[in-house]
Amino acid sequence: MPELPEVETVKKGLEDILVNKTIKGINLSGFSLRFPIPKNLVSLASGKKIVSIGRRSKYILFNLSENISLISHLGMSGNYRILSQEESKSYKAKKHDHIIFQFEDFKVVYNDPRRFGYIFITDKDPKDHRSIACLGPEPMSNNFNEAILAKSFYKKERPVKNALLDQTIISGLGNIYVCEALFRSKINPKKKIKQLVYSNGSAKNSLIILKNEINEVIKESILLGGSSLKDFSNTEGKMGYFQNTFSVYGREGELCVSKDCDQKIVRIVQSGRSTFYCPKCQK
DNA sequence: ATCCCCACCTGGCCGC
DNA sequence: TGCGGCCAGGTGGGGA
After folding, report:
1. Could you confirm whether A158 is annotated as catalytic?
2. pTM of structure
3. Considering only Cβ atoms within 10 Å of each terminal Cβ, which end of chain A, N or C, has fewer?
4. Domain coverage including residue A236
């Protein structure tokens, strides 16, 4: 499911309820996620208090007492549900419920049908974990600007669509928001990234626009609680609303939303992933 | 070094 | 109704 806005929505939902609560126990389904669930997860996390909950890119970071951290990635289909006290009493684990956290008087369920998600536990700074340390800056952060994009794009041949999905260049974007940001920026997804940078290494105006539109699309989506496609919902099981504002994603064959444009949205495949764009508006 | 492809999974949908 | 094929929001390892 989840790109940065969806993960932020989930993180806020967890934060509201779980901070200062103590994990009393953990039940596992026995299935592996993308990676095996760490053998010491149950013993190390049980009895610890959740001191704070953070997010880095698409990762949710649970900071527990005694400097233990859980690093959680939702993959494509992972989700957390916070059960009410009433629901928790009689709750029977459903299919794909892989981790159930028990608190004093309620439960939190991690469900993941495709098992592409994963969880790590560490007693070191989670920022140094190999999956987090290599991440590029994320939209809306202080160190995300056109200069850093220009540096990554300088003299490089790859299509801008692929580069924006590369989490080491910019982290937090996925297929939906890359397609939407490129449409808003009027940039063709097949455009080579070196074409957005001057030969002296400085950002062209189109790259500055792209940076601004990335920030804008992410900001708007967070305000609407993310996008709900298939199985994404927040920790209360409610859907986000940003999917209602898509201009190109999933709109193959439909009319371009730009004023005075009579083109239909096209779907192509780049690096094995669908790209949606308007061939007339995006040059 | 850079970049693409594939595998990892299940489920939903579409056409026959 | 059933079955095969295709599609899906992500990532990291291997190989070109």
Report:
1. no
2. 0.96
3. C
4. 146-277
